[in-house]
Design a protein that fits this description.
CATH class of the largest domain: Alpha Beta
Number of strands: 16
Mean pLDDT: 88
Number of domains: 3
Shape: elongated
Largest sheet: 9 strands, mixed
CATH architecture of the largest domain: 2-Layer Sandwich
Oligomer: single chain
Distance between the termini: 31 Å
Strand order of the largest sheet: 4-3-2-5-6-12-9-8-7
Radius of gyration: 32 Å
Helix content: 40-55%
CATH topology of the largest domain: Nucleotidyltransferase, domain 5
Length: 548
């Protein structure tokens, strides 16, 4: 019987790059090695890789739709022989999430992140820590109460970074490296967690993990949520080098900002101004740098100008009503003006003129020789804005304070200190990635808090894979002094992986089966794709050239 020819198209797109990073860091094998006796049809490691592929596949599908996502994908090519889309059902993935939760998510991720950093050559000399919230719909009620199992997070109401106070939420602590914004720590948190507590606990946990792994001792950077007397004392006692923004509500900070300085320094380009103070505080000695940037000054001036216009209109209306009142005595008039002007901004000036109105007996116009029987007093007011005071206020409000316990400027100069804190945006960029609707985490489709926690592991694992690929590509482009075209066809040496993923849309595997031979052809692979794969390494080239 003669066999007929058959053809099968499967969409590879950018998923080969994602699978390549997972293979290079040994994601599946590392997770499977944590419990060698596990006998799931699809191993925990492979199921986790499948969820990462789904998460970075621009699909945003619930777990029960993962088989649909893989229906037209080369699943055996990506995950291994014998695995089909039907095997990746919600039961398989749900059991995988339960397994991840049972094996300490923070510890699992720390081990994977350390292995990935070692393979990709990424250091953790500077660590940025931050927290964010994720809003969810639904009751999320636990019949046995969270007290029965304290490791389970409480999905509840709290301060929402997404401005959705009407929804319950859970929180996530994340730490990233300065080198490539690569995540190295995660911790799911209760929806009403305090940054004062969670950020300190994260720093102490990361310090312990890094010391156990390879003895790295870095600088830990956080926002002013971590700054308090007790927290800084604990960090100092633990020997942690920290950089943090200092809250302007502190008495010492208010005094320093009010006093200012006559010895401002500025950067070479004139966009950064600062002065330094060595502070002797109850928690120990600290170095504070008061900073003002050109960008912060412009923002403050725009904000303050809106406030000035609004306040001027409000006070003009208040003074108009005051000017139309009459008082029986001069003291009463002046006392009322003093009472009404309480809370007036310093840059708003109210000029008052006292006008007397004689009162005569009887009705109608008094005679020319008539003597007044009494007098009434009126305060005529005018409102003006002191522009010089407005500029001074803008200069003061544009300032912010960065503190550190690294007292020696030779170890960390003032300008380096400011730059170190401004690099805190790496953790915030990670949160923007996790909340992007194009990726996995814009919606949480699981009901059990334990699986919500496990899903946070998958979310940050997606971020890890994404950042590793981006860091590798950018470093290789810089080393070889090459570029690829960006979205507007201009050369760039720092592309985002989102753009690289979009460039790879349309790449397909064509399986050709004939009586004589069996071929796998790669369709629509362009020169820019070949350059990207060459820079990423031989493993990635092999994935996109299965026939050799």
């Amino acid at each position: 019987m003669r066999l007929e020819e058959s053809y099968l198209n499967e969409r590879l797109d950018h998923l080969g790059i994602v699978a390549g990073v997972c293979q290079e860091i040994g994601l599946a094998s590392w997770l499977d090695a944590q419990e060698p006796g596990n006998r799931q049809q699809v191993s925990v490691g492979m199921a986790t890789v499948a969820m990462v592929l789904n998460g970075l596949g621009f699909s945003n599908r619930q777990l029960y739709l993962v088989p649909q996502f893989f229906a037209n994908k080369p699943i055996e090519h990506l995950l291994g022989a014998g695995i089909t889309a039907e095997m990746l059902n919600d039961d398989c993935l749900g059991r995988t999430l339960d397994w991840l939760y049972a094996h300490d998510l923070t510890k699992l991720f720390a081990g994977l992140a350390w292995q990935a950093r070692r393979i990709f050559g990424i250091t953790a000399e500077q660590v940025h820590i931050d927290t964010t919230s994720f809003s969810v719909s639904g009751a999320y009620a636990r019949a046995d109460e969270t007290a029965a199992e304290p490791a389970v997070i409480a999905i509840t109401y709290g301060y929402s970074r997404d401005h959705r106070a009407d929804l319950k939420q859970w929180m996530l602590a994340l730490a990233t490296t300065h080198d490539g914004d690569v995540p190295l720590f995660l911790q799911p948190l209760d929806g009403n967690s305090s940054d004062k507590v969670s950020l300190l606990a994260a720093v102490m946990a990361i310090q312990k993990q890094l010391r156990e792994a390879d003895g790295e001792a870095g600088v830990y950077v956080a926002d002013n949520g971590i700054y308090s007397e007790s927290n800084m004392r604990q960090l100092n006692q633990a020997g942690v080098k920290w950089v943090s923004r200092v809250s302007e509500t502190l008495t010492e900070a208010k005094t320093l900002l009010q006093e200012g300085s006559e010895t401002w320094q500025q950067s070479e380009d004139g966009t950064l101004h600062w002065f330094t103070r060595d502070m002797a505080l109850p928690q120990g000695s600290e170095r504070w740098v008061v900073v003002r940037t050109q960008a912060s000054l412009q923002r403050t001036q725009q904000t303050l100008q809106r406030q000035v216009s609004k306040a001027q209109a409000t006070w003009e209306q208040k003074c108009w009503h005051l000017s139309h009142r009459r008082f029986a005595g001069e003291a009463d008039a002046r006392a009322e003006v003093e009472r009404e002007l309480k809370g007036k901004p310093v840059w708003l000036e109210v000029h008052t003129d006292l006008v007397t109105h004689p009162q005569y007996a009887g009705k109608g116009r008094p005679r020319k020789d008539a003597n007044p029987t009494s007098q009434q007093w009126q305060m005529v007011t005018t409102v003006t804005v002191n522009q010089e005071q407005v500029e001074q206020e803008a200069l003061r409000k544009a300032c912010w304070i960065v503190g550190t316990n690294v007292l020696d400027p030779a170890a960390l100069s003032d300008q380096q200190l400011v730059t170190t804190y401004k690099d805190q945006g790496g953790a915030e960029r990670g949160f923007r990635f996790l909340k992007d609707p194009l990726f996995l985490a814009s919606s949480v489709f699981v009901k059990k808090p334990e699986r919500v926690m496990a899903l946070s592991f998958i979310m940050v694992l997606c971020l890890l894979i994404y950042r590793l690929a981006e860091c590798r590509l950018r470093s290789r482009l810089a080393q070889t002094q090459q570029t690829i075209p960006d979205q507007v066809h201009k050369p760039t040496a720092r592309p985002t992986m989102r753009w690289v993923f979009q460039c790879c849309e349309g790449i397909e595997l064509l399986h050709v089966q004939t009586p004589a031979t069996s071929l796998v052809l790669v369709l629509r692979l362009q020169p820019v794709h070949r350059l990207i794969l060459t820079l990423l390494g031989p493993l990635y080239e092999k994935i996109y050239n299965p026939s050799g």
